[in-house]
Amino acid sequence: MAEAERCRFSVGYALAPKKQSSFIRDSLLVLARSHGVDLVHIDPTRPLVDQGPLDCVLHKLYGDDWNRQLTEFRHRYPNAVIVDSPHSIERLHNRISMLQFVSELRIESPNETFGIPKQIVIYDKETLFDRQAWESLKFPVIAKPLVADGSAKSHKMNLVFNHDGLNELKPPIVLQEFVNHGGVIFKVYVVGVYVRCVKRKSLPDISEENLGTVSESVLSFSQVSNIATNEKVDGKYYKMMHFDDTEMPPQRFLTDVADGLRRAMKLNLFNFDVIRDARFGNRYLIVDINYFPGYAKMPSYETVLTDFFLDVVNKRKEIVYSCDEVMTKIVSNTFCSDEDEIGRKDRTDSSIKF
Protein backbone atom coordinates (compact mmCIF):
# COMPACT_ATOMS: atom_id res chain seq x y z
CA MET A 1 0.00 0.00 0.00
CA ALA A 2 3.05 2.31 0.19
CA GLU A 3 2.84 2.87 -3.55
CA ALA A 4 -0.84 3.71 -3.26
CA GLU A 5 -0.17 6.26 -0.56
CA ARG A 6 2.39 8.01 -2.77
CA CYS A 7 -0.05 8.23 -5.68
CA ARG A 8 -1.07 11.85 -6.14
CA PHE A 9 -3.55 13.59 -8.40
CA SER A 10 -3.47 17.04 -9.93
CA VAL A 11 -6.59 19.16 -10.26
CA GLY A 12 -6.11 22.33 -12.26
CA TYR A 13 -8.40 25.27 -11.59
CA ALA A 14 -9.18 28.08 -14.02
CA LEU A 15 -11.26 30.74 -12.31
CA ALA A 16 -11.81 34.47 -12.52
CA PRO A 17 -9.77 36.40 -9.90
CA LYS A 18 -12.73 37.12 -7.62
CA LYS A 19 -13.91 33.52 -7.77
CA GLN A 20 -10.41 32.23 -7.15
CA SER A 21 -9.90 34.39 -4.07
CA SER A 22 -13.16 33.20 -2.50
CA PHE A 23 -12.87 29.50 -3.41
CA ILE A 24 -9.15 28.66 -3.34
CA ARG A 25 -8.39 29.16 0.33
CA ASP A 26 -5.44 27.83 2.29
CA SER A 27 -7.76 25.58 4.27
CA LEU A 28 -8.86 23.87 1.04
CA LEU A 29 -5.34 23.64 -0.39
CA VAL A 30 -3.95 22.07 2.78
CA LEU A 31 -6.76 19.55 3.24
CA ALA A 32 -6.73 18.48 -0.41
CA ARG A 33 -2.95 18.13 -0.37
CA SER A 34 -3.10 15.96 2.74
CA HIS A 35 -5.39 13.59 0.82
CA GLY A 36 -3.17 13.36 -2.24
CA VAL A 37 -4.83 16.07 -4.35
CA ASP A 38 -2.70 18.95 -5.59
CA LEU A 39 -4.69 21.98 -6.69
CA VAL A 40 -2.80 23.65 -9.52
CA HIS A 41 -3.45 27.17 -10.77
CA ILE A 42 -4.12 27.37 -14.51
CA ASP A 43 -2.76 30.56 -16.08
CA PRO A 44 -5.45 31.84 -18.49
CA THR A 45 -2.83 33.84 -20.41
CA ARG A 46 -1.02 30.66 -21.47
CA PRO A 47 -2.34 27.88 -23.73
CA LEU A 48 -4.16 25.30 -21.62
CA VAL A 49 -2.61 22.34 -23.47
CA ASP A 50 0.85 23.52 -22.41
CA GLN A 51 -0.13 23.32 -18.75
CA GLY A 52 -0.96 19.62 -18.74
CA PRO A 53 -1.07 16.82 -18.00
CA LEU A 54 -3.73 17.19 -15.34
CA ASP A 55 -6.07 14.57 -13.93
CA CYS A 56 -8.93 17.06 -13.80
CA VAL A 57 -9.71 20.60 -14.96
CA LEU A 58 -12.04 22.63 -12.76
CA HIS A 59 -13.16 25.81 -14.49
CA LYS A 60 -15.54 28.73 -14.56
CA LEU A 61 -14.35 30.75 -17.53
CA TYR A 62 -16.42 31.58 -20.59
CA GLY A 63 -15.98 32.47 -24.24
CA ASP A 64 -15.28 30.80 -27.56
CA ASP A 65 -11.51 30.87 -27.07
CA TRP A 66 -11.72 29.13 -23.71
CA ASN A 67 -14.11 26.51 -25.09
CA ARG A 68 -11.69 25.88 -27.95
CA GLN A 69 -8.83 25.44 -25.47
CA LEU A 70 -10.85 22.92 -23.47
CA THR A 71 -11.52 20.96 -26.65
CA GLU A 72 -7.83 20.94 -27.55
CA PHE A 73 -6.93 19.89 -24.02
CA ARG A 74 -9.44 17.03 -24.13
CA HIS A 75 -7.93 15.78 -27.38
CA ARG A 76 -4.38 16.01 -26.03
CA TYR A 77 -5.26 14.42 -22.67
CA PRO A 78 -8.32 12.21 -23.31
CA ASN A 79 -8.19 10.69 -19.82
CA ALA A 80 -8.51 14.00 -18.03
CA VAL A 81 -11.90 14.94 -16.55
CA ILE A 82 -13.28 18.39 -17.33
CA VAL A 83 -15.71 19.71 -14.73
CA ASP A 84 -18.04 20.74 -16.28
CA SER A 85 -18.99 20.75 -19.96
CA PRO A 86 -19.18 24.33 -21.34
CA HIS A 87 -22.26 23.40 -23.36
CA SER A 88 -24.07 22.22 -20.24
CA ILE A 89 -23.01 25.30 -18.28
CA GLU A 90 -24.30 27.67 -20.97
CA ARG A 91 -27.84 26.36 -20.53
CA LEU A 92 -27.90 28.03 -17.12
CA HIS A 93 -27.05 31.42 -18.60
CA ASN A 94 -30.67 31.92 -19.60
CA ARG A 95 -33.23 32.20 -16.81
CA ILE A 96 -35.96 30.68 -18.94
CA SER A 97 -34.04 27.64 -20.17
CA MET A 98 -32.54 26.95 -16.74
CA LEU A 99 -35.91 26.37 -15.10
CA GLN A 100 -37.17 24.22 -17.95
CA PHE A 101 -35.11 21.44 -16.43
CA VAL A 102 -37.27 21.69 -13.31
CA SER A 103 -40.51 21.53 -15.29
CA GLU A 104 -39.34 18.35 -16.99
CA LEU A 105 -38.39 16.50 -13.79
CA ARG A 106 -40.52 13.52 -12.78
CA ILE A 107 -39.92 12.74 -9.13
CA GLU A 108 -42.26 10.77 -6.90
CA SER A 109 -42.65 12.13 -3.39
CA PRO A 110 -45.39 10.96 -1.00
CA ASN A 111 -45.89 14.34 0.65
CA GLU A 112 -44.01 17.12 -1.17
CA THR A 113 -44.65 18.73 -4.55
CA PHE A 114 -42.44 21.12 -6.47
CA GLY A 115 -42.40 23.35 -9.51
CA ILE A 116 -41.46 26.85 -10.62
CA PRO A 117 -43.24 30.21 -10.23
CA LYS A 118 -45.24 31.62 -13.11
CA GLN A 119 -42.93 33.65 -15.31
CA ILE A 120 -42.65 35.24 -18.74
CA VAL A 121 -39.80 36.73 -20.72
CA ILE A 122 -40.00 40.32 -21.95
CA TYR A 123 -37.73 41.25 -24.85
CA ASP A 124 -38.75 44.88 -25.49
CA LYS A 125 -40.43 47.91 -23.90
CA GLU A 126 -43.51 47.58 -26.06
CA THR A 127 -44.29 44.14 -24.64
CA LEU A 128 -43.39 45.30 -21.15
CA PHE A 129 -46.23 47.83 -21.14
CA ASP A 130 -48.69 45.57 -22.95
CA ARG A 131 -50.83 44.31 -20.08
CA GLN A 132 -52.36 41.58 -22.22
CA ALA A 133 -48.89 40.13 -22.84
CA TRP A 134 -48.52 39.17 -19.21
CA GLU A 135 -52.03 39.07 -17.87
CA SER A 136 -51.29 35.71 -16.24
CA LEU A 137 -49.13 37.52 -13.67
CA LYS A 138 -50.21 39.97 -11.02
CA PHE A 139 -48.26 42.35 -8.84
CA PRO A 140 -45.94 42.16 -7.12
CA VAL A 141 -43.46 40.54 -9.52
CA ILE A 142 -39.70 40.02 -9.45
CA ALA A 143 -37.85 41.34 -12.49
CA LYS A 144 -34.61 39.52 -13.28
CA PRO A 145 -32.15 39.97 -16.16
CA LEU A 146 -32.69 37.28 -18.80
CA VAL A 147 -28.96 36.59 -18.90
CA ALA A 148 -27.60 34.81 -15.83
CA ASP A 149 -23.86 34.59 -16.46
CA GLY A 150 -22.69 35.29 -12.93
CA SER A 151 -21.79 38.92 -13.63
CA ALA A 152 -22.78 41.70 -11.24
CA LYS A 153 -25.31 42.91 -13.79
CA SER A 154 -27.04 39.53 -13.93
CA HIS A 155 -27.66 39.67 -10.17
CA LYS A 156 -29.44 43.02 -10.23
CA MET A 157 -33.12 42.36 -9.56
CA ASN A 158 -36.18 44.40 -8.77
CA LEU A 159 -39.32 43.75 -6.78
CA VAL A 160 -42.02 45.60 -8.72
CA PHE A 161 -45.18 46.56 -6.83
CA ASN A 162 -47.22 48.25 -9.57
CA HIS A 163 -47.23 49.40 -13.19
CA ASP A 164 -45.33 52.59 -12.36
CA GLY A 165 -42.35 50.44 -11.41
CA LEU A 166 -42.12 49.06 -14.94
CA ASN A 167 -40.58 52.33 -16.09
CA GLU A 168 -37.34 51.45 -14.32
CA LEU A 169 -36.93 48.08 -16.02
CA LYS A 170 -34.69 47.44 -19.02
CA PRO A 171 -35.55 44.42 -21.21
CA PRO A 172 -34.68 41.71 -21.92
CA ILE A 173 -35.91 40.56 -18.54
CA VAL A 174 -37.83 37.76 -16.89
CA LEU A 175 -40.89 38.67 -14.86
CA GLN A 176 -41.51 36.08 -12.17
CA GLU A 177 -44.48 36.01 -9.85
CA PHE A 178 -43.69 36.85 -6.25
CA VAL A 179 -44.87 34.09 -3.93
CA ASN A 180 -45.10 34.62 -0.19
CA HIS A 181 -42.69 32.19 1.46
CA GLY A 182 -42.24 33.28 5.05
CA GLY A 183 -39.15 35.37 4.37
CA VAL A 184 -36.94 32.27 4.06
CA ILE A 185 -35.09 30.91 1.03
CA PHE A 186 -33.38 27.51 1.01
CA LYS A 187 -30.11 27.31 -0.88
CA VAL A 188 -29.32 23.75 -1.93
CA TYR A 189 -25.66 23.13 -2.75
CA VAL A 190 -24.80 20.22 -5.02
CA VAL A 191 -21.28 18.80 -5.34
CA GLY A 192 -21.48 15.61 -7.37
CA VAL A 193 -23.72 13.33 -5.32
CA TYR A 194 -23.38 15.45 -2.17
CA VAL A 195 -26.36 17.67 -1.30
CA ARG A 196 -26.43 20.27 1.48
CA CYS A 197 -29.24 22.71 2.26
CA VAL A 198 -28.87 25.94 4.21
CA LYS A 199 -31.50 28.58 4.92
CA ARG A 200 -31.13 32.31 4.35
CA LYS A 201 -33.29 35.35 5.00
CA SER A 202 -35.27 36.42 1.97
CA LEU A 203 -37.88 38.89 0.81
CA PRO A 204 -40.57 39.36 3.46
CA ASP A 205 -44.14 38.36 2.70
CA ILE A 206 -46.44 40.98 1.19
CA SER A 207 -50.13 40.90 1.96
CA GLU A 208 -52.70 42.29 -0.45
CA GLU A 209 -53.61 44.88 2.16
CA ASN A 210 -50.04 46.11 2.47
CA LEU A 211 -49.51 46.07 -1.29
CA GLY A 212 -51.86 49.04 -1.66
CA THR A 213 -49.97 51.05 0.97
CA VAL A 214 -46.43 50.57 -0.40
CA SER A 215 -44.87 54.01 -0.91
CA GLU A 216 -42.44 52.90 -3.61
CA SER A 217 -43.11 51.34 -7.00
CA VAL A 218 -39.97 49.23 -7.13
CA LEU A 219 -37.36 47.87 -4.71
CA SER A 220 -33.94 47.05 -6.16
CA PHE A 221 -31.68 44.34 -4.75
CA SER A 222 -28.83 42.16 -5.93
CA GLN A 223 -29.78 38.72 -4.62
CA VAL A 224 -32.84 37.43 -2.84
CA SER A 225 -30.76 36.08 0.05
CA ASN A 226 -29.16 39.52 0.53
CA ILE A 227 -32.43 41.41 0.89
CA ALA A 228 -32.33 41.16 4.68
CA THR A 229 -29.30 43.46 4.72
CA ASN A 230 -31.30 46.17 2.99
CA GLU A 231 -32.07 49.02 5.37
CA LYS A 232 -35.65 49.10 4.10
CA VAL A 233 -36.35 45.70 5.64
CA ASP A 234 -37.12 45.73 9.34
CA GLY A 235 -35.09 43.11 11.23
CA LYS A 236 -38.01 42.62 13.61
CA TYR A 237 -39.87 40.91 10.78
CA TYR A 238 -37.59 37.87 10.87
CA LYS A 239 -37.90 37.57 14.62
CA MET A 240 -41.66 37.67 14.25
CA MET A 241 -41.51 34.96 11.57
CA HIS A 242 -39.27 32.78 13.80
CA PHE A 243 -36.57 32.46 11.16
CA ASP A 244 -34.30 30.37 13.41
CA ASP A 245 -37.10 27.87 13.98
CA THR A 246 -38.02 27.51 10.31
CA GLU A 247 -38.21 23.83 9.42
CA MET A 248 -35.90 22.65 6.65
CA PRO A 249 -37.35 20.78 3.64
CA PRO A 250 -37.03 16.98 3.88
CA GLN A 251 -33.50 15.95 2.97
CA ARG A 252 -34.67 12.93 0.96
CA PHE A 253 -36.88 15.17 -1.15
CA LEU A 254 -34.08 17.66 -1.81
CA THR A 255 -31.66 14.87 -2.65
CA ASP A 256 -34.08 13.42 -5.21
CA VAL A 257 -34.59 16.83 -6.83
CA ALA A 258 -30.84 17.52 -6.85
CA ASP A 259 -30.08 14.14 -8.37
CA GLY A 260 -32.72 14.67 -11.03
CA LEU A 261 -31.31 18.08 -11.92
CA ARG A 262 -27.74 16.80 -11.94
CA ARG A 263 -28.61 14.09 -14.43
CA ALA A 264 -30.82 16.32 -16.58
CA MET A 265 -28.37 19.23 -16.73
CA LYS A 266 -25.27 17.01 -16.87
CA LEU A 267 -23.60 19.21 -14.28
CA ASN A 268 -21.78 18.36 -11.08
CA LEU A 269 -21.32 21.76 -9.42
CA PHE A 270 -24.36 23.96 -8.88
CA ASN A 271 -26.92 25.16 -6.39
CA PHE A 272 -30.60 25.91 -6.64
CA ASP A 273 -32.76 28.28 -4.65
CA VAL A 274 -35.99 26.92 -3.19
CA ILE A 275 -38.88 28.64 -1.42
CA ARG A 276 -41.78 27.06 0.44
CA ASP A 277 -45.10 28.34 -0.89
CA ALA A 278 -46.86 29.91 2.12
CA ARG A 279 -50.22 28.90 0.65
CA PHE A 280 -49.32 25.19 0.74
CA GLY A 281 -46.97 23.92 3.41
CA ASN A 282 -45.66 21.05 1.29
CA ARG A 283 -45.33 22.93 -2.01
CA TYR A 284 -41.81 24.03 -3.02
CA LEU A 285 -40.81 26.34 -5.85
CA ILE A 286 -37.37 26.46 -7.46
CA VAL A 287 -36.68 30.07 -8.38
CA ASP A 288 -33.06 30.01 -9.59
CA ILE A 289 -30.16 27.71 -10.48
CA ASN A 290 -26.51 28.80 -10.39
CA TYR A 291 -23.40 27.10 -11.71
CA PHE A 292 -20.37 26.78 -9.41
CA PRO A 293 -21.80 28.95 -6.60
CA GLY A 294 -19.99 30.37 -3.58
CA TYR A 295 -19.14 27.06 -1.95
CA ALA A 296 -17.02 28.74 0.71
CA LYS A 297 -20.32 29.83 2.30
CA MET A 298 -21.27 26.18 2.73
CA PRO A 299 -20.28 24.58 6.06
CA SER A 300 -17.21 22.31 5.78
CA TYR A 301 -16.84 23.07 2.09
CA GLU A 302 -13.18 22.02 2.18
CA THR A 303 -14.07 18.45 3.14
CA VAL A 304 -16.92 18.24 0.64
CA LEU A 305 -14.81 19.48 -2.27
CA THR A 306 -11.82 17.32 -1.36
CA ASP A 307 -14.06 14.25 -1.33
CA PHE A 308 -15.45 15.32 -4.70
CA PHE A 309 -11.97 15.66 -6.22
CA LEU A 310 -11.08 12.20 -4.99
CA ASP A 311 -14.30 10.80 -6.44
CA VAL A 312 -13.48 12.39 -9.79
CA VAL A 313 -10.05 10.87 -10.11
CA ASN A 314 -10.66 7.55 -8.35
CA LYS A 315 -13.84 6.69 -10.23
CA ARG A 316 -12.09 7.61 -13.45
CA LYS A 317 -9.26 5.20 -12.78
CA GLU A 318 -8.96 1.69 -11.44
CA ILE A 319 -5.67 1.45 -9.58
CA VAL A 320 -4.14 -2.02 -9.58
CA TYR A 321 -1.17 -2.56 -7.29
CA SER A 322 1.41 -5.32 -7.50
CA CYS A 323 4.57 -5.97 -5.53
CA ASP A 324 6.77 -4.32 -8.11
CA GLU A 325 4.79 -1.64 -9.88
CA VAL A 326 1.62 0.38 -10.05
CA MET A 327 -0.50 -0.13 -13.14
CA THR A 328 -3.26 2.28 -14.02
CA LYS A 329 -6.15 1.02 -16.11
CA ILE A 330 -8.44 3.63 -17.55
CA VAL A 331 -12.02 2.52 -17.03
CA SER A 332 -14.19 5.44 -18.11
CA ASN A 333 -14.83 9.12 -17.68
CA THR A 334 -17.79 9.03 -15.34
CA PHE A 335 -18.52 12.73 -15.16
CA CYS A 336 -20.96 14.66 -17.28
CA SER A 337 -20.06 15.91 -20.69
CA ASP A 338 -21.88 16.63 -23.91
CA GLU A 339 -21.53 13.00 -24.94
CA ASP A 340 -21.68 11.30 -21.57
CA GLU A 341 -24.33 11.46 -18.85
CA ILE A 342 -23.35 10.82 -15.29
CA GLY A 343 -25.01 7.79 -13.77
CA ARG A 344 -26.70 6.54 -16.93
CA LYS A 345 -28.47 3.22 -16.48
CA ASP A 346 -27.50 1.93 -19.91
CA ARG A 347 -23.76 1.91 -19.19
CA THR A 348 -21.79 -1.29 -19.56
CA ASP A 349 -21.00 -3.23 -16.41
CA SER A 350 -17.37 -2.06 -16.43
CA SER A 351 -18.29 1.58 -16.01
CA ILE A 352 -18.93 3.35 -12.75
CA LYS A 353 -22.42 4.33 -11.65
CA PHE A 354 -23.52 6.84 -9.02
Name the CATH superfamily assignment of the largest domain: ATP-grasp fold, B domain
Structural class: alpha/beta
Helix content: 25-40%
Low-confidence segments: 225-232, 318-334, 337-354
Strand content: 15-25%
Instruction: Give Rg in angstroms.
Output: 22 Å
Q: What is the number of helical segments per DSSP (H or I, 4+ residues)?
A: 11
Shape: globular
Biggest sheet statistics: 5 strands, mixed
Q: Architecture of the largest domain, according to CATH?
A: 2-Layer Sandwich
State mean pLDDT (0 to 100 scale): 83
CATH class of the largest domain: Alpha Beta
User: What name does the CATH topology of the largest domain carry?
Assistant: D-amino Acid Aminotransferase, Chain A, domain 1
How many beta-strand segments?
Answer: 16
Please give the domain count. 2
Family: Belongs to the ITPK1 family.
Enzyme class: transferase
Binding site for 1D-myo-inositol 1,3,4-trisphosphate: 19, 60, 155, 187, 290, 294
GO molecular function, one term: inositol-1,3,4-trisphosphate 5-kinase activity
